[in-house]
């Protein structure tokens, strides 16, 4: 009887030890897998955040999470310690990474048609047709994707090879204005709050790093640009350059 009892206790101990060892192994494997993806700690929104929310209020609404480096959006905030005095430029939704571009000085909210350019970036203005900017539905504070197309000369020394690529993600729009045919011929002033129509161009001012801005200007000078409106769930993975044979396959 004692032998069977001892055998049962020993089997139970071995079973528990096995579960503990398995759990430890799985956790270690998990850590190894995450280490292989170069994880980064970024702040992720946990609950709806209204535009104009202060940093002190925001601290209870975000949480630091570990994400693979490839999944971290450009400009993602890792700490609020250096964002003192700022407020959210737009409403934020749960699950989105907190971007530096969405934190601005309170004074910028006094002008709904303009948001401050984040530190280290510079602004440039693009004049585009309405169909290239969602029919004019893009507004200051939005983030956009920048599609660049070239009809010829895709690379030095190549023959004609039309190509398109989604080159930049999460580019902050800092100002939007309209220009009718009459204002285009004037000193360049923009007419705000007009509905896009034929003969109307839209001025979109965006904030980029110097290198990215140079590429965008090159595309404006020698190619064509389309903008797409992006949101918190937009996939920012790299998209290969598209050629005609890739479309018609």
TrEMBL record:
<dbReference type="InterPro" id="IPR013974">
    <property type="entry name" value="SAF"/>
</dbReference>
<protein>
    <submittedName>
        <fullName>Flp pilus assembly protein CpaB</fullName>
    </submittedName>
</protein>
<feature type="domain" description="SAF">
    <location>
        <begin position="40"/>
        <end position="104"/>
    </location>
</feature>
<dbReference type="Pfam" id="PF16976">
    <property type="entry name" value="RcpC"/>
</dbReference>
<dbReference type="InterPro" id="IPR031571">
    <property type="entry name" value="RcpC_dom"/>
</dbReference>
């Amino acid at each position: 009887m004692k032998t069977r009892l001892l055998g049962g206790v020993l089997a139970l101990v071995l079973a528990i030890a096995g579960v503990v060892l398995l759990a430890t192994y799985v956790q270690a494997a998990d850590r190894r897998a995450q280490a292989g993806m170069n994880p980064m700690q970024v702040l992720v929104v946990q609950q709806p955040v209204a535009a104009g929310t202060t940093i002190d209020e925001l601290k209870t609404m975000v949480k630091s999470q570990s994400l693979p480096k490839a999944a971290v959006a450009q400009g993602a905030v890792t700490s609020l310690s250096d964002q003192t005095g700022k407020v959210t430029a737009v409403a934020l939704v749960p699950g989105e990474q907190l971007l530096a571009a969405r934190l601005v000085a309170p004074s910028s909210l006094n002008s709904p048609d303009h948001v401050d350019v984040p530190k280290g970036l510079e602004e440039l203005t693009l004049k585009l047709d309405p169909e290239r900017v969602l029919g004019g539905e893009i507004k200051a504070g939005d983030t956009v994707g920048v599609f660049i197309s070239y009809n010829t000369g895709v690379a030095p020394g190549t023959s004609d090879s039309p190509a398109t690529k989604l080159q930049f993600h999460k580019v902050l729009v800092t100002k939007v204005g309209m220009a009718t045919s009459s204002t285009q011929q004037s000193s360049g002033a923009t007419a705000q709050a007009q509905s896009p129509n034929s003969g109307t161009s839209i001025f979109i001012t965006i904030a980029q790093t110097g290198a990215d801005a140079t590429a965008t200007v090159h595309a404006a000078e020698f190619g064509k640009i389309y903008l797409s409106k992006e949101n918190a769930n937009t996939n920012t993975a790299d998209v290969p350059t598209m050629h005609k044979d890739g479309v018609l396959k």
